[in-house]
Amino acid sequence: MDRYAASGVDTVAGDTAVELMKRSVAATHGPQVLGGVGGFAGLWDASALTRYRKPVLATSTDGVGTKIAIAQALGKHDTIGQDLVGMVVDDIVVVGAAPLFMTDYIACGRVVPERIAAIVDGVARACAATRTALVGGETAEHPDLMAPDDYDVAGAAVGVVEADRLLGADRVRQGDAVLALASSGLHSNGYSLVRRIVRDAGLRYDTRIADYGTSLGEALLEPTRLYTAALLDVLDGPDGDAVHALGHVTGGGLAANLARVLPRGSTVDVDRSTWTPAPVFTVLAELGGFPLEEVEGAWNLGVGMFAVVEDAAADRIASALTAAGIRTWRAGAVATGDAPEGSVQGAKGVDGGAVRLVGAYAR
């Protein structure tokens, strides 16, 4: 009798899951990855860093929050991995760093090999799209602590940037243009509010929503847009030095995630009239009975990333990103002065600039 299996931990299922995910993980490996899949530690040949004069390593870790509850409710697990990569790797590119490698962690009540493999396949596909090697991970079975079909995911990644190419508030100048990069939807933030709205409205995730053209659940599971590759191409191109700062719009919403990458004493008015929030936002707000302005600190409302760039290069950079599949537009400009009334000043412990949203959203 297998005492461990009898206690609720199936090591055979775990091994099966590893076999199912091997091919997708290996597809992210370049010559720097050593040892393949299944080792105690992932190995990455750091001699590739010798071409840098002064390499600075960047690291980030995150999860995808309660969006997982919708994936579990629908039994659709092949997109949540992209959400994880987006939350982790797109934080790294904010400082100008190119991601090198990533690891993931899945905790579950019961290992279902096909489900674990679907999650990891999503991670691997997104890693490949962001030029990141998936060098390792862990699947942990937690019977009694988690329900059999429950799971959670987390990940961490490491990137590198030349020290004199670091992006941040110290490079931002008065008159810089603020570009907005379109999101694909809700991404991976604000889902506790989303689920409460859906519950209070008495809706099911398989309910067809005319404005979405899909079921409610399908719209809510739209995977997080990946910005890393397109931004790295700009940073490595002729206008790379014109990019001064990037702000990833995640938890905290629009104003806060721009304010934290601006210098103290700077101000930005983000013009709402420069874009129209997608139906996924407007329908939820209508169901909840509140205006969009009340959820600017929870949802990205159509902007997944801000780029602060030299004004003279702004149109070229916007065109390059749009051509790469990320619609990009001017949404404001950097000024100096006291924080205006109604602005958000800094965030996440950073004493940064002041940002407020002005005007009305385009309809």
Describe the structure.
It is built from eleven helices and 15 strands. With 363 residues, it is of the alpha+beta class. It has two domains: 163 residues, 2-Layer Sandwich (60s Ribosomal Protein L30, Chain: A), CATH 3.30.1330; 190 residues, Phosphoribosyl-aminoimidazole Synthetase, Chain A, domain 2 (Alpha-Beta Complex).
Sequence-ordered SSE layout with sheet pairings:
Blueprint: H1 3-6, H2 11-26, E1 33-34, E2 43-44, E3 55-63, H3 67-74, H4 80-92, E4 98-108, H5 113-129, E5 133-141, E6 151-162, E7 177-182, H6 191-200, E8 208-209, E9 214-215, H7 216-220, H8 228-235, E10 243-248, H9 253-259, E11 266-271, H10 279-288, E12 303-309, H11 311-323, E13 328-336, E14 344-347, E15 350-358
Parallel strand pairs: 4-5, 11-15
Antiparallel strand pairs: 1-2, 3-6, 4-6, 7-12, 7-13, 8-9, 10-12, 11-13, 14-15
Helix pairs in contact: 2-5, 4-5
Explain briefly what this protein structure is:
The protein has 363 residues and is α+β, with helices and mostly antiparallel strands.
Summary tags:
363 residues, alpha+beta, 60s Ribosomal Protein L30, Chain: A, Phosphoribosyl-aminoimidazole Synthetase, Chain A, domain 2, 2 domains, 7-stranded mixed β-sheet, 4-stranded mixed β-sheet, 11 helices, 15 strands, globular, ATP binding, cytoplasm, ATP-binding
Structure summary, number of beta strands: 15
Output the CATH class name of the largest domain: Alpha Beta
As for the number of domains, it is 2
Side by side, the strands of the main sheet go 10-12-7-13-11-15-14
Strand pairing plus helix content: what structural class? alpha+beta
Q: What gap, in angstroms, lies between the N and C termini? A: 65 Å
Largest sheet: 7 strands, mixed
